[in-house]
């Protein structure tokens, strides 16, 4: 059989990350290279967004990536959860924050905006390092459109 | 049996929330009343933090709460997950963001800070409404201390 | 203790449904009574949406409901999943359709609209009975706004 | 060992999808090519239905598919759930709709048809793009035969 | 609050079963009393089907049931799974048979009928005791309509 | 390493099924070929029973199977559940029937036989196609020995 | 409502166990009192078997039990798993033994008896205290009938 | 890469079991060959204990095993659960016995020994075939040291 | 019904903890009061160990506890897991440490002691506060007997 | 494709452990070799921490490791849980201790330190063998920084 070579976006992401690490390129440098914000860039390379072909090729050139890896970067992702990743301590802390503060955030959204949600689709995220006398801080800003529950009919 | 009256912090939170709603007091007003940030305030009232007695009583006076409810506000919480809450659409979106962007956030933390986590304990969260021509936005800022993996021995 | 009377929205919904059944009022009649589409009406009464006070009272009058039930209808819902309900045969068939056709729907959405989702918040659903020689059919129309993945920053 | 070459229907579907993408053929074009509705077509190619040999070969010719892939298209599927797919954001929204509106749909079916279900087997689904001033909409129509609970004995 | 008295169908079933046992009435006698097949009868009384009011009253009279129990018998059931019941040894054996022989039954259905399912809605079940020299046997006959996968559109 | 060639019974079953399908042999024909009932035959070939060597070879000759596949047919099976298979729609309907009617079957067994179970080990299953004016029916007969709870001691 | 008083077998078991403890009666004494082996006796009282009325009354007299508790002892049990009990350290060790040695026991059963199981229905269990210089030992003997896989048809 | 050849203990166990079966050696014969009790022997070969090198080689010689398999027999095992194995009918019956009789065994241990457990580490298991007029029986003896809860401090 | 009053050990523990908090008695004071180590004391009061009657009464006197609570302290515990507690952030960190360091601890135990476990039954735990210039530290010492895997037969 | 060679940290850890075992090097010797505490060393080699390149090479030289293995030692780990490992008896005992004593440890931490957690990130663990007349003991010391819940804002 001569099936087309398909490497999963996630496996491709792990391979590219390894090349990136050895090349000494930081994620911020990759972000600049393709002209995208850092969180989006890392998410895309690790398999959660599709890069436009031009950006994928620019990254491929910079890192000397195989064509199959460049191609994987451009594919539409399946963004399904990988259950075990949620227990990595760095990632788990985010889920714990939602566990502890999720109902409070929901209460404030309903109080200030009305019944609805913060979109996870029309949304941007940034991560900053902020100096602090008691130890530097990770400041994550999640910026999503408010979507009110709306019973709209398209009038088909 | 004359067991001491114990109402769970969560049941107390639901009851107080209902009194609050009928009294017309917004969460922001409650926040001002006790002099605490809004997300912390809502989390505490809903059962995830303990209020100092003075603040609990100030809130109890304002809302005309029963002593058992005021007392519940001051108890040390068990902050365990209530599994089903995580599927409420407003709360689920936050977990989905961690699913989609968690590995990217982890990559950036390791790149900019080194191996470690953002603390979920030494951490504050704010939620703002920001006007935007395409629809107002929910802006959540998570601000946690970076904790590097450190193999410290106390020298007992 | 004289805690405020709180009946959960779901328990209230079950109680109202039972009164409704005995009163002989169909869901369509309830829908007309409060001037809302049938699927929204049933969802709201069963606990998944909040009725405005005026509509809740109109329904309370028609069915002779207790004030606590009318009040429950107006509360902000927690829309979390009740796991076991998903195995009721009538409801399970919908989940099975998503299992079998979900990847195909995702493929078509991405093909015709681009990378994104159909909103479950800005969305209406109708259910019709359509006569057919081989047996009448249930026709469900789900009509949701397309939301493209968009990395918008509010410029705080 | 010279075991017969067996590629799973799902792996075959992923491979064909990739060839399709690179060939520039939309799912609608594939649908026309084999003369089947779009949702059925995408579901079948991705592994949830069996294509008749003639249709499988027509598709194979158009895309230049290997014989093993053409053969996989004709096999009887196992339609079991792949658990993680249900958390992809595009697919998850459908499950969330069933979570929020499932009991309402069940109530209306029982009210308008009697005790029974909408068949997930005798069922068709279409997906349309409908223009709307506030943003185009995804309109999904699920059209399934009503099956009343019936205690039929075949009189063996 | 004077909420309408609602006893769940399942709790009602357990209570009626206990009255039945003490009255000395076998399930076969109950089946004859209401003129329904035994498996359907036991399923309905235990909460999985609704009895028509006349049958519910006939049963109520025979067992001296409270009006609330008679009423519960007539309500539309939620037929969701109770997870733990599936581990009762008598019930578990049925699930184990599906585990061991399910793929074989699926293969034979597809071979003899084509692609489709045996309906669990248009279906009857009987249970017989058959004498056998090595020990009497439980013979269960499941008799369900074959439903072929059919992509029918109602032509709305 | 020259480890002995071991193909799992299940992988072997899938491979043999594919050869069978292409050879045009129905499961009934395989059943006749080895002189075993159809459900047992399909279950055994798909990996849930061991075939005696003579029967395995007769089948291997008829289908032109590799020795490794013939050998796999004769191995003692591990009959453990494959979780996802239980969600295939054709198989799921059987589990749903146990969910809906399991407690009723248990009640009737206890009523007619006493406290005990229907054996899933001393048990046969047949599947028939029965013509019916409203559509042919799948009739499955499960025929298992009744086993009363018995506290027997072997007197070691 | 005047529903018949129903206390679950398990709640009844916990209540009787508490009376037993305070009365100073050991489980062995209860076993002798009703003339049944100790493991069966404890299992029955705790809710896993039904006591014949005469034995239930003898126990009720000895412990001064309420009629509702005596009655509960005579009801047919639902023997479903209580998930959390399996993590009690004393009970967990038994599950761990099955985890570690289950495949070995299966291998030996198949080797010495042929393909089949040890019955969990036609089975007795005893527990003995055996003195040993390194610490007394718990010796549990499980004595179950071998049941060979047998495809028996009752010839209905 | 020339990584050291590592075959998992479990895969090694399955391969050795297959060689053993074809060689006609029973588990009892293997047990005698290495001078270990049968249950321990089967558990060790299937991957749950480490064989001392001398015993592993004696077995390797008798069965003509590859060096990699002999080596795997001597490695320290990970004894973690394989979830699906617990649903094999022969193994499941043991878990079911713990489900039904676990609380009774716990009650008797506490009654006869005090608060504690039967060790699953200092423990031996034997399996015997005992003739019985109603069918031979599997008699399993579990013989574990009683461990009382003891709050011992080593006085570091 | 006049069932004996039974309050679960856990509910009793929560009630006693609340009395303790209001009385101003620290856990260390309770520990001294009954003459037991602090971790054991807190575990016992919260429901995981049984207090001897004399200690339970001393505690009951000091706190003015109801007889039912004193009695609950003396009952044999069921030590089963409460699943949700494991997600409380303070408790979760301990599980995370086992996740991250468990395999390393297992490797060192096997290296230094041989194949076996650290007993969770013959085990003591202490918790100390140790001053440290960068912030005080929690030092937990777990001190358990090593138990080698030993195939001991009691020679019944 | 010439993808960069990537071996997972865990697979690398298993391979190195096997080389280590055959080389006769104890974990303590490895610990000395790289100048790190034993628990940290074993955790790092088994995949839970990254070794600095110099240490990785020193270990690679001592054991004659392939470059790919040495490289794997230096990669940033994903520390996610491997679910099944938690049921290995040696590791499970640690989880059981948290189950039984976790709430007590939480109570003491809150009593002696205030509301907060013991850090699992700023934390060291040691394991010692301590002689004891009744059998040597495993003494594990967990030494983590106390982190009080603190609502710190970085003042961005």
What does this structure look like?
Ten copies of one chain form a homodecamer. The first copy, chain A, folds into three domains: 66 residues, 434 Repressor (Amino-terminal Domain) (Orthogonal Bundle); 30 residues, no CATH class; 37 residues, Cyanate Lyase, Chain: A, domain 2 (2-Layer Sandwich), CATH 3.30.1160. A two-stranded antiparallel sheet of chain A has the order 1-2. In chain A, helix 2 crosses helix 3 and helix 4 packs antiparallel against helix 5. Chain A is globular and about 50 Å long. The mean pLDDT of chain A is 94. In chain A, strand 1 and strand 2 form a beta hairpin. Chain A contains six helices and two strands; from the N terminus they run H-H-H-H-H-H-E-E. Chain A is an alpha+beta fold. Strand 2 of chain E pairs antiparallel with strand 2 of chain F.
Short structural summary:
Chain A is α+β, with helices and mostly antiparallel strands. Chain A has six helices and two strands; from the N terminus they run H-H-H-H-H-H-E-E. Chain A has helices at 9-23, 27-34, 38-45, 53-63, 67-74, 89-112, and strands at residues 116-130, 137-148.
Report the major sheet of chain A.
2 strands, antiparallel
Multimeric state of these chains?
A: homodecamer
Assign the CATH architecture of the largest domain in chain A. Orthogonal Bundle
Number of helices of chain A: 6
Low-pLDDT stretches of chain A are none
Q: Which strand order does the major sheet of chain A show?
A: 1-2
């Amino acid at each position: 059989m001569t099936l087309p070579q398909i490497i999963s976006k996630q496996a491709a992401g792990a391979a590219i990350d390894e090349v990136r690490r050895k090349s000494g390129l930081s994620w911020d440098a990759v972000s600049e290279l393709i002209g995208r914000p850092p969180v989006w860039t890392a998410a895309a390379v690790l398999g959660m967004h599709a890069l436009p072909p031009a950006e994928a090729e620019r990254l491929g050139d910079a890192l000397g990536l195989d064509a199959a890896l460049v191609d994987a970067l451009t594919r539409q992702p399946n963004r399904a959860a990988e259950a075990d990743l949620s227990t990595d301590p760095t990632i788990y802390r985010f889920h714990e924050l939602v566990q502890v503060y999720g109902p409070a955030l929901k209460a404030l959204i309903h109080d200030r905006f009305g019944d609805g949600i913060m979109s996870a689709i029309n949304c941007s995220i940034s991560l900053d390092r902020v100096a602090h006398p008691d130890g530097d801080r990770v400041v994550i800003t999640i910026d999503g459109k408010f979507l009110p529950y709306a019973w709209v009919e398209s009038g088909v």
